[in-house]
Structure formats: C-alpha cells, structure tokens
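Hey Z.,

So I finally got round to the magnesium ion thing we talked about over coffee. Here's the setup:
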Amino acid sequence: MSNDCCGGSHKKMLLLEQARQRIHDSIQPVSGVEQLPVRDALHRVLAADVHSNLNVPAYDNSAMDGYAIQGSDIPANGTIRLEMIATSWAGKPWSGTMQAGQTVRIMTGGKIPQGADTVIMQEDVETDEQFIQIGHQHKPGQHLRKAGEDIAKDAVVLPAGRRLLPADLGLLASVGATQISVRRKLRVAFFSTGDELCSIGEHLDDGQIYDSNRYTLYGMLKRLDVEMIDMGVIRDQRDLIRQAFQEASSIADVLITSGGVSVGEADFVKDTLEEMGQVDFWKVAIKPGKPLAFGKVQQALFFGLPGNPVSAMATFYLFVQPALKWAMGQTEVFVPRLKVKAAEKFKKHPGRLDFQRGILRMEDGEAKVYSTGGQGSGILTSMSRANCFIVLPLESTGVEAGEWVEVEPFEGLL
Ligand code: AMP
Ligand code: MG
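And the result:
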C-alpha cells in the first residue's frame, strides 16, 4: 500500500472515493461455491449466471377474463357478432383452431387458441347464448401476454454477483431452477477493544461503560448474512491483542475491531497490527469517523473502526459493508442517494464530507429531511432515531431550510 495516506495530522486525508477504491483493489471474492435449494439461497450471492431453459410465460396467454378473437374481425365501425365455440381455462387449454367469425371464451392465464391473436375483455362484450357482440374500439393484439415476454429461453435470468432478493427467488422458481450456485458465506470475526468496556450482564464499576459497538456490529453483520465470530471485549494489552489477532486471522476471512485507532491512543494496537500484517492507519475526509485502519492480517481483511459508537456505525456502512459485499462476490454494493428538501438549517464546517443523521419523511407532498438533533459521534440515539444519512459535500458550509440536499436512506424496499 502507498504511504501518502496515514500517520500524522499534517498528512493529506483520503477522500471517500479514494479509500473505497483502495479497499476494492485489495479484495478477492471468496472462491468457495455451494449448491442450495432456491429458498435457502435468499440473500446469498450468485456464483454464476443463471440461464433459462424455457420461455416465461411458456405460451401466449390472456391478460384478462374475456374472449379470444382474430384481430382482423374487429369492425372498422359499428359492431360485429362472433360465434362462441369453446372455452380456454388457465391450465385447461382448448386444443382446436379458431376461424374468422368465431370466438373462444378465455380466462386470465388461459392459452390463446390457434387462430386467435387478440383478447376482448368481458366487460366490453354483450353476450347472448352462443354469440357475442363487440364494438370497433379495440386494437388487434391487445390483452395478450406473449410467450417469453418476461424471460426468453436461453436468456440470462440473473447475473453472477447478484444478491438474491424475494423477487429473484420467484424468478428462479418461474424458470424451474431447483439448485442454485452461490458463494459460500463470509466468516467475519469481531471484537471491541478498551479497558473501560463491560459486556451486558456484567457489573459496571466506576469509569466503565457497556460495550455497544459489538451489538450494532452484530445487527449490521446479521443483515448481511455472514457467519459471525463474536470474540468479545479485548483489554488494552499487547499480548491479549496479539493473541486475538492471531486467532481471528486463522479462522476468519475478515476481522473487524472497534476502538483504539484515534491519534495518541493505545499505540500498541497499532504496533501489533503493523508487526503482524500490512495495515494502514487512514484519515478519511469524512465526518463522523475520520480515523480508520484498513489492511490485512495474514489472509484476513482487517478493519479497525473508531470506538465512538456513531463513528463505528458510519464507517461500517460507508466502508465495511461495501467491502464485505465485494468479498462475497456481489457487484452492486452502494446505496442510491436521493435529492430532497432540507426541512431546517444544517450547520457544517468545510473540509470533510459530512454524514449527518436525518429523518426523511413526506410532508405536503414533498420529501423533506430533518436533523435528529445532536450530532456528536458518541450520540448513538442519533443513529437510532435516523432513517437516513444527510450527505453534505466536502466544501459545503451548511444548508439553509428549503435548499436541496442529498440523503442515503438506511432501508430500502428490497
Ligand atoms: P477509542 O477509539 O478507543 O479512543 O474510543 C473512543 C470513544 O468511544 C471512547 O469514549 C470510548 O469509551 C468509546 N468506545 C470505544 N469502544 C466502545 C464500545 N465498544 N462501545 C461503546 N463505546 C466505545
Ligand atoms: Mg479505547
């Protein structure tokens, strides 16, 4: 790794994109592949393109309950009577051939009979016994779902690198796929560092706090469907840190720690890392979360997140989450941003890209974003109350109410 990034405060800070690019460049997706039944493949990443060996739909069928006719029978004006000769149900097709002047009663999903090319919806038809009467307001070819219009035979249904979502399971089922090739799960080990930290259930002595980062990390990792190895709290001692790194790097693909990466703090963490692997201590020009360590310990990717609870979450979302997705073989990894109206003034100092915590909602027909209030990097309630990051550009000096701002929603429909 190059050396223009790290160390003292006089050194240049990395931009978000530069840091992400370096992370991307150092990642090889896991090579292991497993075959899973469709349902078990939810949230897993496809190891290979999935091709369809059939058309979906498999045959031309009706989009409506109505009557199949020949488009050329539609009158130029006035009405026409057609003879009703059969019925085509979904799952029970009529196998005959229809002639001009005839019609076949058809249900939604019913196979279009030979000789027909158009459907008239039943609401537009007058019937008497064996005949129907239709007007001239119809278009030849209407209300038909063509064979292969959703998925054509031999087409790529889903590309390698796709993280499978509910719609994808349906797509896989609709082409009859049974076993799906996905990348194996990532193994991610994590621990917190700090002499002040207790785990929940332990007694808090004076000067101690509960470790919250391991719980936010658990939640964020759980949603990425990785295999987790929670190594607990490691005290600020060189030998314990070294031992934890050794253990983690021998069992995990990725190691994530929090705490001990800010300037002047617990330098032996830094020393130990440098002695055991290749690790850069970065200052990335973002807020919150300026100090961040990234590198490798043996074969494991390493992320050293800042200890402050908001910074730990923000740096996870901004760097670790995309990195884990790349390592899982996923190709689309970033959350799309939206432009919405600032509902109030947002203060900012120029020099860093700000990820303030916001509450996005619709008001008077417009998407607006509010601040969650106090933006200190220790205020974890700001993450809990927020449903988006408000992204304020590096050189911005703040935003007035009513101006446009970019937001990154925390949750999507998918
Ligand atoms: P550090 O990065 O170790 O200097 O920690 C910065 C701040 O975050 C300090 O106030 C720590 O007490 C706090 N902190 C560090 N780790 C955690 C944790 N796991 N849970 C909650 N707070 C933490
Ligand atoms: Mg610490």
